[in-house]
Amino acid sequence: MLRTARCACGSTSITVSGEPQIHAVCHCSNCKQRTGSAFGISTYFPRSEVHETKGKTNVYAFHHAAQNHDQERHFCANCGTTLFWFISVMPELIGIAGGCFGEALPSEPTLSVTHGKKLPCVALPESWRTVPQ
Questions:
Q1: CA dihedral defined by 43, 117, 112, 50, rounded to 10 degrees?
Q2: Which residues of 54-91 are buried (b: 16+ CB within 10 A; e: fewer)?
Q3: How many Cβ atoms are within 10 Å of 119's Cβ, its own excluded?
Q4: Model pLDDT for residues 38-69, shown as the tens digit of each residue
C-alpha cells in the first residue's frame, strides 16, 4: 500500500509503501518546538520503501546533544512544514511527520518516547509502551 505525506501547502510530498517500523509520539522539547504542539508524531519507514519525493525542501541539520545523534530535517521551502528527517543512529530509516499523512495516518502510534516530559494535559492509552527518556 502506498501512502503519501504532504506539507501544509501541498507543494512537497513523500510517498512510501508498507507499514512504519516505528510509530511513536515524542515529548522531547525539540519535537514540541518542531511541531508547535504538545508532542510530535513520528513514523519511521525503511528508506528502501520511499517511492517518490516531490517539491523543494530546505534542510536544517544539527547535533541533538541530549540524545547524542545528528539530524537532518527536510521542510517545505514554501510553507515550512517539517516533512521528513534522517537520524544518524538509525541510518536505514526515514522519519516522516505523522500529521503530514492527514486523515490517512498509517496506524495508531504504540510508543511514547521521552515520556517523562509528557505534559500533564496529555492522556495516552495505557496499552502504549513508554520510554522515560
A1: 10
A2: ebebeeeeeeeeeeeeebebbbbebeebbbbbbbeeee
A3: 10
A4: 999 999 999 999 999 999 999 999 998 878 89
Number of H helices, E strands in the chain: 1, 11
Distances (CA, A) of 62 to 56, 66, 88: 20, 12, 11
What are the pLDDT digits (tens) for 70-122?
999 999 999 999 999 999 999 999 999 999 999 888 888 999 999 999 999 99
Q: The whole model's pTM is what?
A: 0.92
> What is the grid cell recorded at 118?
509528557
d(CA 70, CA 42): 16
Cell 530509516 appears where?
93
SS3 113: strand
Cα–Cα distance between 66 and 80 in angstroms, integer?
25
Residues near 66 by Cβ (< 8 Å), separated by ≥ 6? Answer: 28, 30
